[in-house]
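Here is a typical sample entry:
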Amino acid sequence: MLAKNEEICKQRIHGFEITDEKLTERGGITLFVRYLESTGIYSLIIPFLEMLKKTKKGTSIGNIFKQIMCFFFDGTSYSLTRFDELAANEAYAESIENNKEAMCSSHTIKRFLGAFRYFIIWRFRVILQKLFIWRLKITKPSIIILNIDSLVMNNDDSEKKEGVKPTYKKVKGFHPLQLSWNNYIIDAIFRGGSVHANHGDAVLKMVRHAVNLIREEYNADVAIMI
């Protein structure tokens, strides 16, 4: 379920044809909205994030998630005040198949992001893994090549430096561990900058879990390369 029925624009796009008329520069974002629906990601996201809303009133979790994803996909501005501009743009609301009244303000987004806690961030790993299995079942690879590496995140220029630590690249920041397949991140652990790539047994546990997941939910005999 994407969102409450009253949040979705009644005039949805059902076909594409050639036209001589001027097109909106963000017309392609409608295709992105349909892609999100086709992945079934809302059925994964909503149960995990329902606890973030203290009341059923207001914009639904699915609609908030959709608007945040479209915000990043559009990329015109990464300031939260951009949501206020988009909320006042009726054409943009229609392009993402929303009613204008269901558009989020910057304050709505701030409250939503501010409700996140550490244990919820860990639950996102499950979502990444389920999307990974979903893609495997579509592409049906005979060989699965998993890449595991760390990524240094530079936080030197940030005004707030809570939790940052020196990294081996001589900057202060974070050093997450990431497992990927075909350029898709399928698992990740957020860690302090001083933690080295092979710290503890994190790599072993991450790889073991991914392999077991592939064997149990995709194919028990497929070749896996690390």
Q: What stands out?
A: Helices lie at 29-39, 41-49, 61-74, 82-87, 90-95, 106-114, 118-139, 202-217. Residues 5-114 form one domain. The radius of gyration is 20 Å. Residues 9 and 97 are 5 Å apart (CA to CA).
